[in-house]
Amino acid sequence: SHNMAAVLNLCRRAILLESGQITADNSSDLCVDRYLRTVDDISSVPLALRTDRKGNQSLKFINFQIADQEGNPTKSVYSGQNMTLVFSYLGNSLDDLKNVHVSVGVYGKFDEHLFHLSTSVAGADFEELPRKGSICCKIHCLPLQPGKYTFNLFSKVAEEISDWIQNAGIINVEAGDFFKSGKLPPYDQGPFLVHHNWSTGLEDFELR
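The chain above was modelled as a monomer; its predicted structure follows.
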């Protein structure tokens, strides 16, 4: 399983496998700690150097950068901030790339899947792209608590998988004034931040 929260909750003992070999056989908390350290190490390797990827490489991701709301490169973003994920890519031929789909899966500290970003879901698949360039995904008002998040990166060109990288990178989130109140809820209440309003009910709704 890659669901670390489930492993910690259900298992007293765990076995960690790397390339088919047992590298740890211990209590679940120690094995999970070791697994998460391994994920961090892998995610820190530049995309151009990653060899643990799938696909025909008709589009290959070679770099990842986070830009803040002013468009400046940054290593950390803040809760509630507008941000952009920038993925540089390179095609393996001189031709333009046709019918390109890109998606990003974002994961929490226990490797739990938090949300999915997709050009198809957003109605934004690219009919044509130059063989070299960057693909950007803008996130409005980042709804995440402070912490470290990893992501998987996936692409298809002309309906064929072109590049697929697990634990492709890390997003570092710092505390920000998401609610404009100077406060954030405790992290143990969940990783997501949701804008909301309160009233007595009678002001906004007719009770029936």
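The chain has a mean pLDDT of 89.
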